[in-house]
Amino acid sequence: MKKIVLLLSLSSLLLAACGEAKDDTQQTTSPSGEEFSVTLPILKEKPDTTNETLTVLANAETIVVNPNPPADESQKAHKLHAANNGVAEKDENGNIKEYFRYYDVPSNWAINTDNTEDETLAAVYDVTQGATNLMVQLYNINAFNKSPLEEGTNMTPEELEARMVETNHVFVEKTTTTIVDQEWQVGRQILSDQKMIRLTFYRMESTGAYDDSVVVGSLYYPMEAGLDKDRAILKQTIGQLKDVLYQISKK
Question: What is the pTM of this model?
Answer without folding.
Answer: 0.82
